Amino acid sequence: MVSSAIDLLKKEIPLEQESVVLAEDAVNGLVLVDIIHGFCTVGAGNLAPREPNRQISEMVEESARIARIFCEKKWPVMAFIDSHQPNKPEKPYPPHCIVGSHESNLVPALQWVEKEANVTIRRKDCFDGYMGSFLPDGSNLFVDWIKNNHIKSLLVVGICTDICVLDFVCSTMSAKNLGFLHPLNDVVLYSRSCATFDNPLHVAKNTNSALPHPQEFMHHVGLYMAKERGAIIANKISLGTNI
Ligand SMILES: [Zn+2]
């Protein structure tokens, strides 16, 4: 899609973003969505970037920076990791992030989080980390994580803005509105720490069964749809005691 067309479409659904201050005297939670080789490392698999991608590399760098801050504060962090059973396809996508594969591991900039006491790792076999947090006994690891840690504000980062990140935000907003996530107040999507993949129309046309997916526009749409559910879209995050 040419940039002038993207600009025209973006003007039809303008996205106002906020500068968000995370209260240092309350518990803030951080959710990392699928920041793994299979979606972020060049050439790592069927859904990995084919060449270096600025939106994705900036998302990784900024997410690692935010994760460091949360770990220094000992605030709770949950990392969702796409991990599929080899016999369970996730249509319309080709096989990706199979359990035990290199694709299904955190990127090097975030591998250190696995050793941190405040970090919960959740491997999921579906798009949506909320749905993927249900345990066989019917309880939900994410819901219990919010409640047990008394999380008031939730910061969400990761990939893909318009797929796994959005699905998780949609489920979380519905659960919050139903009263399942007390005391959670705010769900904040940090746009600079979100990214999606690039599969422009002229490439998709030559690839069997791949949907066209212009990166910049779909990233914008993903953020916009999260805002439609009531999430706060932030382009700046800082720490303070005034909220
Ligand atoms: Zn997947």
What percent of the residues sit in helical stretches (DSSP H or I)?
Answer: 25-40%
Give the tally of structural domains: 1
Any idea what the shape is?
globular
| Major pleated sheet | 7 strands, parallel
Broad CATH class: Alpha Beta
Poorly predicted segments? none
Topology, number of strands: 7
Task: Give the CATH architecture.
Answer: 3-Layer(aba) Sandwich
Order of the strands making up the biggest sheet: 1-7-6-5-2-3-4
Q: Order of helices and strands, N to C?
A: HEEHHEEHEHEHHE
Ligand inventory reads: zinc ion
- N→C terminal distance: 41 Å
Structural class, by secondary structure, is alpha/beta
- CATH fold title: Rossmann fold
GO molecular function, one term: nicotinamidase activity
Protein name: Isochorismatase-like domain-containing protein
Organism: Cucumis sativus
Family: Belongs to the isochorismatase family.
What are the key terms here?
Isochorismatase-like_sf, Isochorismatase-like_dom, 243 residues, alpha/beta, Rossmann fold, 7 strands, binds zinc ion, 7 helices
Protein model, in words:
There is one protein chain. With 243 residues, this protein is an alpha/beta fold. The protein has a single domain, classed as Isochorismatase-like (Rossmann fold), CATH 3.40.50. It has 7 helices and 7 strands, in the order αββααββαβαβααβ. The chain has helices at residues 3-12, 37-40, 54-73, 141-148, 164-177, 201-204, 215-228, and strands spanning 18-23, 28-33, 77-82, 119-124, 153-159, 186-195, 232-240. The protein has a 7-stranded parallel beta sheet, with helices on both faces. α5 (164-177) runs parallel beside α7. The longest helix is centred in the N-terminal third of the chain and has 20 residues, at 54-73. 40% of the residues are buried. The mean pLDDT is 94. The structure holds zinc ion. Zinc ion (ZN) is lined by residues 82, 84, 90, 96-97.
